[in-house]
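Deviations from the work plan: none for this task. Representative record:
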Amino acid sequence: MKFLVVEDDAAAADSLKKGLSGFGYEVDVALDGDQGLQMVRSRDYDLWVIDVMLPGVDGLSMLKSLREGGRHTPALILSARGEVDDRVAGLRAGGDDYIVKPYAFSELQARIEALLRRARAFDAAPETVLEVGDLRMDLLKRAVTRAGQEIFLKPREFRLLEFLMRHAGQVVTRTMLLENVWDLYFDPQTNVVDVHISRLRFKIDKYFESPLLHTVRGSGYVLRAHG
Amino acid sequence: MNVLTAPVRLVLGFLALYILASVLIFGYLYSQLSAALITQIDKALLDQQRLLVMRYHDYGRAGLRRAIENQIASRGRGEWAYRIVDAEGKVAFEAGGLVLPQTVPGKGVRDVEVDRVGPSPGKRRARVLSFALPGGPKVFIGIDTRQAGELMQGFRHAFMRTGILVVLLGAAASLWFARRFQGRIEAFSQLARRIVKSGDLSSRMPVQGNDEFATLALNVNAMLERIERLVQGIRQVSDNIAHDLRSPLTRLRADVEVALQQNDPATDRATLERVLSELGGMQTIFNSLLSLGQAEAGGMRLKRKRLDLSAFLAEMVDLYSPSAEERELELAGEIAPGLAVFGDRQLLAQALSNLLDNALKYVPAGGTILLRAARAGSAVEILLEDSGPGIAPEMREKIFERFTRIDPSRTLPGTGLGLALVKAFVELHGGSVRAAESALGGAAFKVELPAA
C-alpha cells in the first residue's frame, strides 16, 4: 500500500510518515500542492492524505483538479478548521473523509482503514445481508440473529451495529461513531458512546461463547469474529 | 484649528436664514404700507374732486374758485396744487404752494414731478388728479407726497437700524452659545483623547444639567462602563486561561522531564499515557475557547434549518439515558409533540449536551433528571431539571461566565466553559438561557428559543 501525504509542516509530515510506516504502509511526502500534483502524476497511490492549508496550490484546489482529471483515489483531508461548513467544503472538493487537527493518531489510522476498505468494496454489489462470524444482519428485514437466535435491537442500536459490521475487523473510534451513527460533530464530556456500546455488547455477546465486540484501549472498538 | 467649527457654521447658517426671513417680512410690510399710504392720498384727491364738482354744479366757475381758495385758506397752500384750464386749453386759474408743469401728461391719478414755491422750494413728487367739468373746463389737483415718502424712509431706516442691531446681537449670542457648545463637545474630545493616550478606562464625563449633553454624557459613561467591564472580563479570562492551560502544561513538562531523567522504559509508557490525557483536556479547553470566541464575536456561521425539536430532544434523551442509567440516575423526557425551531442542529446539540453533561456530573446516584419541552407563546421552552445539589441564587448568573466553576476546589473534571458555550449558542439563535431552582430540588435550566 502506497500513500501520498501532502503536508507543508515537515515535522508533522515526518511523524505522520513514521506512524504510518509502522503499520506497514509505504509513505511519500510532498511539502506543497504543486509537488503533490507532480507526484500523483508520476506514481499511483492507494490513498492521499492532504492538508488543506498549503503554500501555492491549496489542498482543496489540488484535490478538485485531480478529481476533475478523473482520479478516484480515496482522499483524507486534514484541516485545522473543524466547523461543519469546512467539512462540507472539504467533502465537496472531493475528499472522502475529513479529520480536524490536532487529531489522535489512532483516529487517523481508523479512518484510513475505513477509507481503504470502502474503496475495495466500491465495485461490489450493495449488500443486503451483513455477516461477522455467526452474527447476521438482514438489512431488508431489519433483523439481527446470532447463531440463529434472534436479537432485538432498538433503531439506534441497529444503526450502531450496522456501522460496526460494515467496518468489521477495523478499529472504529468514538468520534467516528458519533459522526456516523448520531450525526454529531463534537465529543460530549459524558462517555455516551461507551455506554451504548456496552448495551449492544450485552445484547450480542452476553449469552454466547466467543465475544465479537472488543474494546481497543485508547482508540475505540472493533467487531471481529476471531480473537 | 478650523475657525469654522460645526457650531459656528450652524450659527452662521441660521443667521443668514434669519436675515433672509427679515428682509422678506420687511419687503412685504413695506409694500403693504406704501400701498396703504397711496390709497389714502388718492382718497384725499377724490374727496377734493367731489367737493369741487359739487361747488361748480351749485355756483359755477366763481363757486369753484371760491371753494379752492377756501381750501387753501383752511389748510395752508404748501402741500397743494390747483389748476383750472378752460375749454380752449388756456390756464384760467392757478393756486397752491406747488406749481404743476406747463402740461401734465396722462390722466386719472398719477405721479408727476412739480416745483415747490414758498418757504422751502425745490423739486417734489406729487400725486395729481385731473378731471373735466361739464361745459369744458378741466381741473388739476395735486398733493405733495413728501410726508408719505418721509414716513416710508423712516420706516426703512428704523428697519435697517433695528435689523443691524438684532443681527449683531444675534451673532454675538450665537457665537457665545457656539463657544459654549464647542466647549462641551471639546470636553468629550478631551475625554476620548485621554482614554486613547493612557488606556485608562476609568475616566468619566461630568454630567451637568439635564439637556442633550447630559444625556450624551450619561450614555458615554454607560458605554465606558461596559467597555471597562468587558476589558476586565478579558483580563479575567486571560488569567483563567493562564491557569487552565498553564497548569496542565506545567504538569506535562514536569512529567516529561522526570521521565527523561529517570530513563526507565518501565515508567515511560505510563508517562506517555498521562501526557496524552493532559493533551486531550487541553484540546477540549482550546476548542471550547475557540468556539466561544467565534460565537461571541459573531464570527460563527450558523447552518440554520427548520429542526424538528421534539424528535431532536427525544434523540438527545435516547443518547444520554444509558449513561444516566449507568450512574443510577433516571433521565426522563416530557416533550410536547410537534415542536420546531429554526436552528443549527450541531450547535443546539452541543448546548444541550453540555447541560446534560453537567446534570450527569452533579446529580448524585438515585437522582432524577427531567427534560421537558413545550410551546410558550411564540417561543419554545426547554427545561432541564434535576434533583441534584442545585445552584445557589447568587451564582445563577455567574455560572454562565467563562471559567466559573460551581465547585470552587475545581476537583471535578470540567473546563468551566460549558455553560458559557450554552449561553453563547442559545443567544446566537436569538434565545435565552437562565438557571433557577427546580421543583425536583436541584437546578433547573430554562432555555427559550424562538419557535419556527
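Residues 2-123 of chain A form a domain with the Rossmann fold fold (CATH 3.40.50.2300).
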